[in-house]
Amino acid sequence: MKVVQLGPYPPPHGGVQTNLVAIREYLRCHGDSCDAVNLTRFRSQEGDGVYYPQGALALMKLLWRLPADLLHLHFGGDLTPRLLALAFFCSLLPRRKVVLTFHSGGYPGSPAGLTAAPLTLRGFVLRRLDGLIGVNPQISALFRRFGVRAERIRTILPYVVNPPDLSLPLPPPLKDFLAAHGPVLLTVGLLEPEYDLPMQIECMEAILRQFPRAGLLIAGAGSLEAPLRRQIAATPYAEHVLLYGDMPHAVTLRATVECDAMLRTTLYDGDSVSVREALYLGTPVIATDNGMRPEGVHLIPIANPERLCAAVCDLLSHAAPHRAAAGDGQENIRAVARFYVELTTGAAERSRG
What we know:
- By secondary structure, the protein is α/β, with parallel strands linked by helices.
- It contains 12 helices and 13 strands.
- Strand 9 (215-219), helix 8 (225-233) and strand 10 form a beta-alpha-beta unit.
- The relative contact order is 0.13.
């Protein structure tokens, strides 16, 4: 089977990127072909089946010539006209099945999501695709509101966890920070306004009063990197906060095991991959309640520093040993691969329009 994945390809490393790469690695390990096409502004060197087309025309030419039995689109955020045009173009390519994973967990409840209906451009395009994957039940229900038949829809969580290699050497700044601090809080995500990271940094003042050696490790990249670094430098406890920057996934998993808790404070969020990974690895999570957090997360209200500080101090005061979940962490990727097989062998009948 020849598959082409289209979406954000790392770096930087994020939840959607992790899902795309995990699928690609799984397929290649099992004898299938899987190329990747980056759809973001980030550029790297082409090679090993990873492509960085510049512009819509270059992308269309690439998709026309790349051999593929199946194209897998990975969209997050909004169903913009540009993304819909790409999905429609893919549906026109001959002898290719098209699958879309929509990673935007908060979209069903957004103003745009609430207008979902069959007689919309979004509904028309989505119904042309051979398969749709929702990363939570709300997104799968959204597809049904657009008129997509139930047999074309799968609900598959986007995370995959390869048990971290505990012998993996940690980069010196990270190793030194972990050695000098404890307990350590970890936050993984984009350095963007919706992740409310300034609140986490501010809360460290109160947390340090109860845990004088505590540390906050922030992993991620984004537009707020410079302002966040200035905020950290202006505090009297700057040595207790490490803004690491973009972190490779293998290092992130290792850090998740090493840290005492993960924070996920957001103003807007979907079904976070990093939250699922932390729970799978046995690391407790404190997260803003967005109505779709998995069982076991310690929930706090949105933009509430007092509740965040209280939740952190309470959790760290009653910390229990990490307990990893059962399974090998590949269950969701296997479900995606089975869906591919159904589509490419004709088990799912195609009827566009």
